[in-house]
Amino acid sequence: MVPIRQGVATLSDPMKDMKADLKSKRIVYNNNPIDKWCLSNTEIKADINGNIQPVKGLDVKMRIDGLISLLCGYIVLEDNKDDYTNMI
Question: Are the C-beta atoms of 53 and 7 separated by less than 8 Å?
Fold first, then answer.
């Protein structure tokens, strides 16, 4: 387990990178319907410095847990990418 701080300073850059990787199809989520649902439920909160973080919309039935876990995994992978690629 690796703790990931859930704040704008920790999530902004990785979220932007993950968005680009999703668009370029570098992240494969196998078109999972739950992941798609969580991604579609996620809204972006931006501050005046251009930092972003994921937030839920106003509907309390919407969930973004899948996106948050994907983002946390993405952060850990990016932080340890050299170790991971050297294992292969």
Answer: yes
Q: Which residues contact 10 (CB under 8 A, 6 or more apart)?
A: 4, 75
For 34, the token pair is: 């739950």
Angle, helix 33-41 to helix 65-79, in steps of 10 degrees: 100
Q: Mean pLDDT for the chain?
A: 91
What phi, psi does 27 have (nearest 5°)? Answer: -105, 125
**pTM, two decimal places:** 0.85
Burial 21-34 (b: 16+ CB within 10 A, else e): eeeeeebeeeeeee
pLDDT, tens only, 28-55 = 889 899 999 999 999 999 999 999 999 9
As a whole number of angstroms, the distance between CA 26 and CA 20 comes to 9
DSSP lists the bridge partners of residue 19 as none
